[in-house]
């Protein structure tokens, strides 16, 4: 297999990354603390000396997860503005119209979510 010379640094970086992950995982496994099996008092969960109440498997409201997903969605939208902000002069009017279209789609999604009541905690 004959690779172009420009691929060699990429392969070296990928190899270093894989080796780092492998060494980190193996090091954590062999050098990390060992848990004793059993139901000793030491292995029980605690919170600042306050006795725990209820079950840890109590379900959360779906509104919590919906808000988290919406936050991630609209947060990622902001990430896409960075390349435009850096290169807005080179993009010209065509780039500006593309960003306006992008923002319009997200505003439509935001108003849809708002109208459906996903952002109302009282319901």
TrEMBL record:
Kind of enzyme, top EC level?
A: translocase
Q: How does the record say this protein sits in the membrane?
A: Multi-pass membrane protein
Question: What GO molecular-function term can you cite, just one?
Answer: quinone binding
Q: Is this entry keyworded NAD?
A: yes
Offer one Pfam family short name for this entry. Answer: Oxidored_q4
Keyword Cytoplasm set for record? no
Q: What are the entry keywords?
A: Cell membrane, Membrane, NAD, Quinone, Translocase, Transmembrane, Transmembrane helix, Transport
EC no.? Answer: 7.1.1.-
Which stretches are transmembrane?
6-32, 64-84, 96-114
Name the reaction it catalyses: a quinone + NADH + 5 H(+)(in) = a quinol + NAD(+) + 4 H(+)(out)
Primary subcellular site in the record, as a coarse category = membrane
Gene Ontology CC: one annotated term:
NADH dehydrogenase complex
**Which subcellular locations apply to this protein?**
Cell membrane; Membrane
Taxonomic superkingdom = Bacteria
| Quaternary state and interactors | NDH-1 is composed of 14 different subunits. Subunits NuoA, H, J, K, L, M, N constitute the membrane sector of the complex.
Its job? NDH-1 shuttles electrons from NADH, via FMN and iron-sulfur (Fe-S) centers, to quinones in the respiratory chain. The immediate electron acceptor for the enzyme in this species is believed to be a menaquinone. Couples the redox reaction to proton translocation (for every two electrons transferred, four hydrogen ions are translocated across the cytoplasmic membrane), and thus conserves the redox energy in a proton gradient.
Q: Which family does it belong to?
A: Belongs to the complex I subunit 3 family.
What is this protein's name? NADH-quinone oxidoreductase subunit A
């Amino acid at each position: 297999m004959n690779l172009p010379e420009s691929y060699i640094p990429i392969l070296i970086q990928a190899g270093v990354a894989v080796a780092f992950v492998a060494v980190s995982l193996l090091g954590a496994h062999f050098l990390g603390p060992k848990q004793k099996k059993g139901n000793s008092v030491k292995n029980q969960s605690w919170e600042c000396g306050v006795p725990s109440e209820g079950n840890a498997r109590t379900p959360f409201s779906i509104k919590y997860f919906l808000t988290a997903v919406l936050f991630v969605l609209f947060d990622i939208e902001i990430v896409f503005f960075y390349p435009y902000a850096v290169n807005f002069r080179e993009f010209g009017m065509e780039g500006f119209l593309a960003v306006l279209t992008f923002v319009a789609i997200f505003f439509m999604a935001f108003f849809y979510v708002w109208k459906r009541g996903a952002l109302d905690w009282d319901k």
